[in-house]
Amino acid sequence: MIPEPVLRYIRRLGSESVQPGSGIRERVYIEFQDRILYGRDYFDNVHQEVLGSLNLPDDVLAKIYSGNALKLVPLS
To answer: Coil, strand, or helix at residue 15?
Structure first.
């Protein structure tokens, strides 16, 4: 189980704690693309907007949005 402070940091890394345009967020998402799951438990789209603003390759976005989750819980 991941400790709550680590989860909080991971959530903030994507949306608000890293200076936009620094390239850090893009590098983190690309480097850890096989470990990131997209999900939300509230009604805004802030994380989806962040992902859309990063200009990540389509294959990276596909893994984050659904591919990694399907490895954990296959639908077939």
So the answer is: helix
